[in-house]
Structure formats: C-alpha cells, structure tokens
Specification:
single chain; binds iron/sulfur cluster; 3 domains; Sulfite Reductase Hemoprotein, domain 1; about 550 residues; five-stranded antiparallel beta sheet; alpha+beta; binds siroheme
C-alpha cells in the first residue's frame, strides 16, 4: 500500500476541502436534516464548531423514529481568556437567543455555547463578529486557543505575556478566508487556493495546544500542552521563555500505545521574536513528521517520543537558524485560582469568582449569569477566564470595589465563592453528558454532588483546609485534565470511574491508576480510606497527592 493510501480519512478531507470550505454552504442550506455531511463535520471544526446531539434524548427520538436532536457547539478564540465587559454582554445575549443559555467556561480559558440549531449558526457567528469575537481555529488539526496564566497580582509582566499569547494566536492562524466567506458573507475568492506556508493544504496531523505559565503559578497546567512556555523573569524583566514540548493527556482504554505525557523542557529562547520563531518551527516539524495514518498516535507527544528530544532540539535549531540556550531555573508552587478580592500590582483590584465547572447559569448556588451580566453593564470590570474554569473580574478601581462587591453579594456569587469548601474550589470536571459524543460517564453534572458527599469525610478527618485538586472526566481523553490531578476520576462506563491517585499539587507529576471501574459506593469507601490514612500518617505539610503516591501506590517505600 502506498503512503497516500494509508493516510487517515481525515487527511483526505483536509486536502480536498479547498481551504476549509468543504461543502459547508450546501450542508447548511439542506433543511431536510439538522446535521451536516460527514466531511463537513470535520471541516466545520476548523471554524470552531462541533456537530453534536442531545444524548439524553437519543432513545426517545429513536423510539419515535426521529432523527437525533442535532445541534452545534461553538467555541470562541480568546487568547489568555480576556473579554471586555461589552463583549460579555454580547455573549450573554447571543447565548440567550441562540443556544441553551448556559455559557460554558472551558479548561483552556475560553467560552462555549451549546445547542445551536443549524439555522442559528450563521447569525451567531455574525453576532460574535459584531462584538469583535471569532471562533477561528478553536477546534480541528491546527493551533487552538492559546492559554496564559491568569493572575495579574503576581507580576506587572502579565499584560506583556497576554499580549504574546495574542501574537502567537495571530501568527498561527490559517490563511484561508473561508470563515469570512461562509459566515460573514465576504466576497468569494475565485481561486480558492490561498498560500499557507505553515499549514499548507494539509494542516497539522492533529490538534495542537500552547499554554504560557508565569511561575510560581502553574494555573495553565503548562506541561499538559503540546508546547508549554514558562515565562522567565529576571530583575523584573521578562527575558524570554523556557520551551517544553510534547504534553498531552489522552489515552484510550485498552490501547497501550496511547498514554498521557507531560511536556519536556528542551531549552530557553530569549525575547518574543526568537520564541515565536521556535514555536513556528516546532509546528512545521510536527506538520512534516507527525503521524498521519493513525489519529490516535498523531499528537506531538508521540512524534517527540518517536524522534527523541536530542533530534528535536537539533531540528528546531536547524530550522530556526539559532541555538536553544540551556533552560533557565524556574519554580512552581501552585496551580490554584486565588478566589475573592486580590490587589493587583497596578493598584487596581480583581475578584476571582467560583463558577462550578465553568457553567455560567443561574442555579441554587448563585445567580451567576445575572450577576456577571449586571457587572458587565457597569463597565467597571474586565473579564478573564481561568484554566480552572472560573472567572476573574479585573481592572477594578478601589472606588468601584463596593459596587462590584454589592452585586456579587446580592446574587449570591460572593457567598458561593467564599463559603465553598476547598475541595469544591479546587475541583474541575469536563462537559461529558449530555452533549459530548465521546462521554462514557457523567462529569460536570455529577462531580458537584460527589463533592457534597466527600465534604463530610474531609471534615471527619480534619482535612478541610487542604487544597487538594480533584478532577473528573467522562472518558480518558482528559478534557478536565484528570490525569494531572491529585485525585482523578476517569469515566469507564455510565456510573463507573477509574480512580487515579498520586499527582502532585503543582502539575509536574501525573497520577497513576489506583482502582478500576469503581461505582459511587466504591469511590466513597476508597477515598475515606485515603483520607483516614492521610490524617494519620502524613508527613509534615505532605499534600494528599504526594502522600497517596508514597503510601498507597508505593507502600513498599513507606517509612511511616
Ligand atoms: Fe477536549 C474532544 C471538550 C479541553 C483532550 N473535548 C473534545 C470534544 C470536542 C468531543 C469531541 O471530539 O466531539 C468535547 C466537547 C464536549 C462538549 O460538549 O462541549 C471536548 N475539551 C473540552 C472542553 C470544553 C472541556 C471543558 O469542560 O472545559 C475543553 C475545551 C478547551 C478549549 O477551550 O479549547 C477541553 N480536551 C481538553 C483538554 C485539556 C486542555 O487542553 O488543557 C484535553 C487534554 C489535553 C490534551 O489535549 O491532550 C482535551 N478533547 C481531548 C481529546 C483527546 C485528544 C487526543 O490527544 O487524543 C479529545 C478527543 C479527540 O480529539 O479525538 C477531545
Ligand atoms: Fe467528552 Fe471525554 Fe472530553 Fe469529557 S474528557 S468532554 S467525556 S471527550
């Protein structure tokens, strides 16, 4: 069989797509179905959308011999997760008009709307465009939303890093005008073959992610990215970035060739220009050497392991024309969001509010959606989403603090944020049911109630002040980064999870499988044993993740 014949079917769809146009216009015009054709399902991802259906209603629809209840999810491109208050108001209205109404903050600092019917997709994109927002390249085999450390208090250099996240995002956008033609009615090109030296006509073998951390906070989980950048600050100057390559969390149950991997630091580049050049060439190397036959093995992490780090370093240096310097020292001491009011370096204030698993809605905990809208209408706070699925209101003047505080309080968001347990505050879950087609088990709809059952156990063993990181995903793809948690739950079947233990607090060690296919009773029993042992046998200041690794996973090495 020739190389060409062995390519995965998605490769042909990409190369035949005429610059990501596919037959999207015909698919959209076909009102006999709420879906689009199979090739266009792949093409539309590059425009930031996924075709989904309501999994809660599949059986009912099938019994009535009706087509699945198809709808689209759209994901915005927001490098560093920043929005103006006017843009938040726009998103609020668009969500109310066209989607389920829930605004979802993702684990990569952006926003998703679910449940858009086919006819609503174009008006939605046009409304986003009117608010200077787009969804270009937030999905598909291309560089995705660039994540960047959220907390402005830590250093005056955050704005610079956020500016760089934007520069990277712009530099790695596809050159095709397809998005503008299809959704925004830009005049169509007659020759639809725009030159794209980076992506050419085949794009990348697989999705690609970049995150920037500013030590000591690793809130972006920098090592889980294909490229992780660690900002190096010396004498209050941002001098450049350590570059780490080959992070990625997905594995497939039963496929031992797939595995999660943390990115490896390969060196340091000075300044933005050199760093951007190195990033660009890492993408070209992955474009040229990544696996295009088996999509399960196509992420950068596998290309890194296949070719080896020394080869990668040499190839990057060959393509960029400069040497990577030895990595500079850095230290991470946290991954958490700093909830509540914090003073920023510039004399302004920011408030980080807890949005459980990123679901912005009004519920029994707080009228979060109403609250954020009201704050946006004051125009007195900027919006930033964190990689832990929360929202930060920033750039607030001292004189406006009481006003914002009153709104937060009146809608219950302040109480929910400040009175929630540490366990809840540091928990994260992916979307899973009812929209994710790959979900094997619940995640964001289930973890809140599981946390409520774990809270009394934590109190029973005197561990309520611990900031243990608990994460759940509905399948092993890792969207809620559960393999990078101290306690991770990975869905294996409806109501069943693998329990993973032993990740560290700062995102520099993955957890490992502890128990397989456990139901809720098993989870509660296992964790009660863990909490009891931790309370009794922990070393001074030992985190639960470190303890679990030492005492439960490697008991042979246990000293206490
Ligand atoms: Fe993810 C696929 C949701 C972050 C690894 N992810 C999906 C899809 C689109 C399902 C699909 O392919 O049809 C999910 C849509 C669910 C829905 O209804 O909204 C989905 N992923 C999410 C989000 C929304 C989870 C959340 O609750 O926040 C996150 C959106 C991030 C963003 O704004 O871009 C999200 N996904 C992640 C992360 C975490 C991260 O990037 O920090 C990972 C693990 C890191 C990594 O990439 O290795 C992740 N998602 C995956 C994978 C596995 C990729 C692989 O290497 O095999 C898939 C499946 C795939 O691509 O085939 C996937
Ligand atoms: Fe869906 Fe699995 Fe990602 Fe959760 S981890 S959103 S279940 S693909």
């Amino acid at each position: 069989m020739s190389e060409q014949q062995k390519l995965s079917p998605v490769e042909k769809i990409k190369t035949d797509s005429q610059g990501l146009r596919g037959t999207l216009e015909q698919s959209l015009a076909n009102d006999l179905t709420g879906a689009i054709n199979d090739a266009d399902i792949q093409v539309i991802k590059f425009h930031g959308m996924y075709l989904q259906d309501d999994r809660d209603r599949r059986d009912e629809r099938a019994a009535k011999k009706l087509e699945r209840l198809y709808s689209f999810m759209i994901r915005l491109r927001l490098p560093g997760g920043n929005l103006t208050p006017a843009q938040w108001q726009a998103v609020h209205h668009i969500a109310g008009e066209h989607s389920t109404g829930v605004i979802k903050i993702t684990t990569r600092q952006t926003l998703q709307l679910h449940g858009l019917l086919k006819a609503a997709v174009k008006p939605t994109i046009q409304a986003f465009d009117a608010a200077a927002l787009d969804s270009i390249a937030t999905c598909g085999d291309i560089n995705r939303n660039v994540a960047a450390s959220s907390h402005p208090a830590a250093s005056p250099l955050h704005a610079q890093v956020h500016g760089f996240a934007d520069t990277i995002s712009q530099a790695l956008m596809p050159k095709t005008r397809a998005y503008y033609e299809i959704w925004l009615d830009e005049e169509q090109l007659i020759d639809k073959k725009e030159d794209d030296p980076l992506y050419q006509h085949r794009y990348l073998p697989r999705k690609f992610k970049i995150g920037i951390a500013i030590p000591p906070n690793n809130d972006v989980d920098v090592f889980t990215n294909d490229i992780g950048l660690i900002a190096i600050i010396e004498n209050n100057q941002l001098i450049g970035y350590n570059i780490a390559i080959g992070g990625g969390l997905s594995q497939t149950h039963g496929n031992a060739d797939t595995y999660p991997r943390l990115a490896s630091v390969i060196g340091f580049t000075e300044g933005e220009e050199k760093t951007l050049k190195a990033i660009y060439e890492i993408l070209t190397i992955q474009r040229d050497y990544g696996n295009r036959t088996d999509r399960k093995l196509a992420r950068l992490k596998y290309t890194v392991d296949k070719m080896g780090l020394p080869w990668w370093k040499e190839e990057i240096e060959r393509r960029t024309g400069f040497a990577l310097e030895p990595a500079r020292p850095y230290h991470f001491s946290s991954r958490k969001d700093l909830f509540g009011w914090q003073a920023s370096h510039d004399g302004l204030w920011h408030y980080t509010a807890l949005v459980e698993h990123g679901r912005v809605t009004d519920d029994e905990n707080a009228a979060t959606k109403t609250c954020l809208y009201e704050i946006a209408t004051t125009g007195k706070a900027q919006f930033r989403f964190t990689s832990n699925q929360n929202v930060m209101l920033y750039g607030i003047h001292e004189s406006d603090k009481p006003l914002i505080d009153e709104v937060l309080h009146r809608h219950g968001l302040k109480q929910f944020t400040e009175q929630s347990s540490e366990l809840r505050k540091h928990s994260m879950a992916c979307v899973a049911f009812n929209t994710c087609p790959l979900a094997l088990a619940e995640a964001q709809r289930y973890l809140p109630s599981l946390i409520s059952k774990l809270e009394p156990l934590v109190v029973k063993y005197g561990l309520e002040k611990d900031e243990t990181i608990v994460r759940m995903t509905g399948c092993p793809n890792g969207c809620g980064r559960s393999v990078a948690a101290e306690i991770g739950f990975i869905g294996t079947a409806y109501g069943r999870y693998n329990i993973q233990l032993g990740g560290d607090r700062n995102g520099q060690r993955l957890n490992v499988l502890y128990k397989k296919d456990v139901d809720e009773a098993g989870i509660l029993q296992t964790l009660e044993e863990l909490f009891a042992a931790h309370a009794q046998h922990r070393l001074p200041a030992e985190t639960l993740g470190d303890f679990a690794l030492r005492y439960m996973i490697h008991p042979a090495t246990t000293i206490v």
